[in-house]
Amino acid sequence: MIAGAGGQFLASPMDRVKIILQIEGASSSTSSLPRTRGTWRTLRDIVRREGGRGLWKGWVPNCQRAALVCLGDLTTYDTVKQWILRNTSLRDTAVTHALSSFSSGLVSATLGTPADVVKSRMMSQQYHHGNRGSLYSSSLDCLTSTVRQEGFWALYKGFVPVWTRMAPWSLTFWLVYEEIRVLAGIGNF
After folding, report:
1. Exposed/middle/buried for 66, CB within 10 Å: 0-12, 13-18, 19+?
2. What's the sign of the alpha-carbon dihedral 147, 112, 75, 106?
């Protein structure tokens, strides 16, 4: 969780730029940022308008999401793999790794999607003087407001795309990781 959150903290400026570029063309009620023409210009515009700290707006929910995704991926993969090895006739092979990674991708998406919704909303909202968000004052405020106004399932908007993005990544990562360990003579995870 710490490694995931730390890595995401370092990447937060580019994630904010990505969110701004993705909402390009949205109405001015959704974003106070003017139309932009690319990554580097967007970075420069944020720094000019908001200072260097503006690059890290939304870093808290960003890091929360990364920590939850890492937690879900690593713990589920290991837990499911050990359960399969103890309770089935399957051996420590690519089939076991694929089943474990499928499960870890599902749990990661389940844990990460609500945080992804909060992160996206926090990063794309307008900010007023004093760095106060126009819609939400914190991640918790965003979470509770979303549930109150739109219902619990609003936290899972985009779940299918999130999972279909995470599942192949998880499958590829764990299959390759396990094979590299075997080829290096370390043995399976």
Report:
1. buried
2. positive
